[in-house]
Amino acid sequence: QITLKEYGPTLVKPTQTLTLTCTVSGISLSTSGVGVGWIRQPPGKALEWLALIYWHDDKHYSPSLKSRLTVTKDTSKDQVVLTMTNMDPVDTATYYCAHSDFWSGYYGFNIWGQGTMVTVSS
Amino acid sequence: EIVLTQFPGTLSLSPGEGATLSCRASQTVSSTYLSWYQQKPGQAPRLLISGASNRASGVPDRISGSGSGTDFTLTISRLEPEDFAVYYCQQYGGSPPFTFGQGTKLEIK
Q1: pLDDT in tens, A72-113
Q2: Nearest to A47 among B54, B56, B88 (CB)
Q3: Nearest residue of A to residue B54, measured between CA atoms
Q4: What is the DSSP letter of A8?
Q5: C-alpha torsion B7→B86→A114→A99, nearest 10
Q6: In the predicted model, what is the mean pLDDT of residues B49-58?
């Protein structure tokens, strides 16, 4: 059974860098086909895809946020890390990590973490 | 960028009725790359449908997906109390590679 869980600060100040960690269990991040994406959701608003990293270290970013995002993985720790620089109050949201199976061919997110709420405020 | 527009924004129905939720893409989307999610308050989204019409594990068969090209539909027959939630469509392709619709809220009338 694959599970994901997000960890990170609940409060960051404007201009600071946000670092979120997604810990994956039940599957190795080096297993062929494994992808982990990051999606966020401002309060009361829709989902927004941010980034995705695959087992072979291929990375994809939202073009509108690419300059601020970095996604990495540590296979030995079963962790995927997302950093977002220059945080702003509009970045206040629940941040989710989610699993995507590349070999399914569907490019959906079939397993989600519970999400972590991040508030940006001075 | 492929924009997904969902309508209606809110759908008010009673248990036992049928629901039809629409997702329209600004460009042609491969049906293989169209997914639907259900999200309940305070919960993470749950994958319902992949490839436009393939139910995920555990999804009841009264929930179905269809469509092709730019128009996709999620149909829920015989609404149960647990079906009242927000539904999102999502596509893969283009730049950015993943986009979500703005959601349809299915509420109890």
Answers
A1: 999 999 999 999 999 999 999 999 999 999 998 888 999 999
A2: B88
A3: A106
A4: -
A5: -40
A6: 96
